[in-house]
Write a structure and sequence with these properties.
alpha/beta, Rossmann fold, 8 helices, 12 strands, globular
């Protein structure tokens, strides 16, 4: 995997890059925000590990620029700042994951694999054309194929990151039933506790935006104080 590591702490960056290279990743280091954007313009990367506090251009601004330009490069924000509101801000800006320093290299490498896997969708036709696989899930006009990391609405593909697709698949599997935030946290994120942040609400909001991007109605109902339900 080719990884762009954006980190202004040079000793830390070199140490982390060495550990990732030992995991068979190719790593390029950018020491500030503008250098990071220049690297993205010049070279192709499978993923970016992005520090939040950077000279010249901070991590949130980099994310906003990437997403405004419709760049779908998977990004893990890696920061010493881990307050709930800061995590939510990073996710809302477009990060696929938010990891607080320090983190074990093995965990970071696993998270890299997860965010990249969610973007490697095979090319091919839409669900109606027979491209959907045997694990296809359907609810109304929404189709999800978890094994192929693909989703459609009204036969139009939806560009989802890994966690968004997992969230949509969980909704489709349970269409017509209420899913609490605690249930979603356990089934989508794999946590056995409900965090104090509004992480689920952030991802539901992002999912809603993509499901309604072409003017379609919002298929997700908010059950106030309880959770959410996808209408079947």
């Amino acid at each position: 995997m080719t990884v762009l590591l954006v980190e202004d702490d040079a000793p830390f960056a070199e140490a982390l890059a060495a550990e990732l290279r030992a995991c068979n990743h190719q790593v390029t280091i950018a020491g500030d925000g503008r250098a990071a954007l220049a690297c993205v313009d010049r070279d192709r990367f499978d993923a970016m590990i992005l520090d939040r506090m950077l000279p010249r251009l901070d991590g949130i601004s980099i994310l906003e620029r990437l997403r405004a330009d419709d760049r779908t490069l998977p990004v893990i924000m890696l920061s010493a700042r881990g307050a709930p509101g800061e995590k939510v801000e990073g996710l809302e800006a477009g990060a696929d994951d938010y990891v607080v320093k320090p983190v074990a290299t093995a965990e970071l490498a696993a998270r890299l694999q997860a965010v990249v896997r969610g973007r490697r969708w095979p090319a091919g036709g839409g669900a109606a054309g027979g491209a959907a696989s045997a694990d296809t899930l359907r609810a109304g006009d929404i189709v999800v194929s978890p094994s192929r990391f693909r989703a459609w609405r009204n036969d139009e593909p939806i560009d989802l990151v890994n966690l968004e697709l997992k969230l949509l698949a969980e909704f489709v599997r349970n269409a017509g039933s209420v899913l609490t935030r605690a249930m979603l946290i356990e089934r989508v994120w794999g946590y056995d506790f409900e965090p104090t942040t509004n992480l689920v609400d952030v991802y539901v909001r992002r999912l809603r935006q993509k499901l309604t991007a072409n003017g379609a109605d919002d298929p997700i109902t908010t059950m106030r104080g309880v959770g959410y339900m996808l209408r079947g």
